[in-house]
Amino acid sequence: MQLYAEHAPTPAPTVATDAKINAADDQVTDLCKDARRAQFAADSLSLARDTAQLGMLYNEVSKSEAAERTEKVLHLKNQNAIGASIVADFMTGNLAIHSGPVKDQLNLLERFLTRSPGSPTILWCDLMKCGRLTATDVHDFGETLSTALNKRPESSCAIVVAPHLTSEKVLHGHRGELRRLESKFDAKNLWSEAISIRCCAPPAQRRVPIQFDAWIVISESKKDENWFMTSQLVQDRATRTEIPWQSESGYVVPVSERDSLPSAAEGQRSLSDVQEAAQFLAGESLPRTLLQGILCKSKVSADDGVHLNLVNLTPYDGWLERVGRRWKERETPSVPMKIISLTKSLSVAQYVEKTIALELMQEWKAGNLTCLGKVRRYEAKPPPALPGKESDVNNFPLRIVKLEVDIDPTKRGWSKFKISIPVSTRMRYADDAIHGQKAPRPYPKCFPFDPISSNRIP
Hints:
By secondary structure, the chain is an alpha/beta fold. Among the domains are: about 95-250 and about 270-365, Rossmann fold (3-Layer(aba) Sandwich), CATH 3.40.50.150; about 400-458, no CATH class. Helices cover about 40% and strands about 10% of the residues. The chain is built from twelve helices and nine strands. The strands form two sheets. The chain has a seven-stranded mixed sheet, with helices on both faces. A two-stranded antiparallel ribbon has the order 8-9.
């Protein structure tokens, strides 16, 4: 026992050992807290840095998107300017519309006919569009017809539709109105042949005639040699097909203001007698039927290589202009037409011009170039962006936040980026009672995404 007592280790004091162990544990705990605090501070600083990087990336992408939108808008404006120039050039050479006094109309008509001396000419005069004719109106129309027809007595004629409304100062009603016009033709040395315009049966609630009067007017000097004396319309003295009635919902009143789109009063029951009578024979059927009748069996041929001059002395709703500009592609004989419309009313000229111009613009945008000819095509989309315009994510290195780029080519701008924080980083503070409850949000409120939850901030 003595020997064991001499060589056995002396036990350490229990109290001193526990104190040292507790001191070591406290020191380790403090070190862990310091390490976690330092780790949290480093992660918060890295997250703040990544958020700033993402903010700069977002600004660059936003600028790229704004530049792309601006480029698209400018491209569309440029295309509209190109289309307007194409339409304006086409209408100047093929479909001119002018307004002014009769003296100016005669000068324009003479210049128009002088540019094509070998081309046949048809004058269109629908007096139903004028309402009740005054003595001045009858004189002006007679003077214009005499000037144009006597300038080309062999290759010109006029289609004159009689007015529906009778003037108050004319005796013997409608027959007196017709006789007044026929007397004016005779006074101007013009030969006239009365024809009838046959119409379909009108709706039951409308009391309108089913037959209207018109004339084929030719210069008396060379009547027998005129190209249109052998036409079907002159021989039949009536239209072979019946003209359908235009629906009242399609009635228009030409109204146009400066720098505004053309407008029309449609479907209104408050139209005056003049406005309603002007629409009795509205639509494409009347001009198409009469032009087919006057050209059929005439000496005008599509093989001659010449165009037909069509002069509209009473433009109102643009139907004759629509038929004339599509005549070569849709009707027979397929003679190209050059049209000029002359009127005293500025609002009527603006309405017809803007209506036809908008239709031509829509056809150009749709790719229908049969009427406009060989012109530059419409480009709806701007040219593809250059390779250097895309934002390079390598210029914005990140420490914690994970940034992925979607390869889907349809996604553009900020929508192609996916932002997230790795699971290992988020789980690092999942059980942290101190730092887990106060997750850092070092990003500005204007930033569009929450980098931690990857959700859009409302």
